[in-house]
Each structure stands twice: as structure tokens, then as C-alpha cells.
Amino acid sequence: xxxxxxxxxxxxxxxxxxxxxxxxxxxxxxxxxxxxxxxxxxxxxxxxxxxxxxxxxxxxxxxxxxxxxxxxxxxxxxxxxxxxxxxxxxxxxxxxxxxxxxxxxxxxxxxxxxxxxxxxxxxxxxxxxxxxxxxxxxxxx
Length: 141
What we know:
By secondary structure, the protein is an alpha+beta fold. It has helices at residues 24-41, 43-49, 129-135; strands spanning 4-9, 53-64, 73-84, 87-96, 106-118, 121-124.
């Protein structure tokens, strides 16, 4: 199985009073990973976003297994869970490089709906072929 990987260095601004990573940052990193995937693997979709395409997150989740702290190096791995009509389900795994972890730090999931702006409304639209093609190599087997 292949993953798209995004590497992130945790900063102090991402920690809470206890010193570990504030939980909402894991979800933020999913979004950043997704954005970098579009930049690197499906730049045509970025142009479509300026022409009315919308990638609306309709569901997001994250399970936490271990803590991360400031200056930890974390790898976020994204894979394709499923393509359904106008929906994309992405799976995310978080791995800490500093502690050479053999188990994931966290695991998350996002479901995105492909929509098109028509006036003041969003209507479902098929997943663009360029995005479907870019995601396919990362599909769970």
C-alpha cells in the first residue's frame, strides 16, 4: 500500500497548558496534508477550485493513541479509503519520527463531498477525473 506523506514539526503554538499537542491540531494537519496532496499530485483541481468546484468536508474523526509534544517530527500518511458517487473518504495515520514509534500516534478519517457552486447554492458534482486518477494509487487494497 502506498501513502501520500506530509511531514510536520510541532511548534509551541500547537500545545496546550500541559505541554502536549492540543487535539484540534491533528484535524488541522489532516487538512494540510490534503492541501499538499492537491498541490503535489492534482494541481488541476486547484484551478477548478477557482472555477466553482468546492471540496466540502462533511465528516472528520481522529483517534488518539499516544501524545505528541513540541518539536516532535510527525509524519501524516494519507490513503484513499473509498470513492462513492461525489464523496471521497481519506484515511490518515500519524507517526512520530523522534521516538521511532512502531505504532501510530493517531488515526483519522475525512469524508469530502465534491460540490459545484451554482449561484448561491452548492450542488453535488462528480469527482473530477484528475482527482480520481491522482487518488487511485493510494487506495487501500
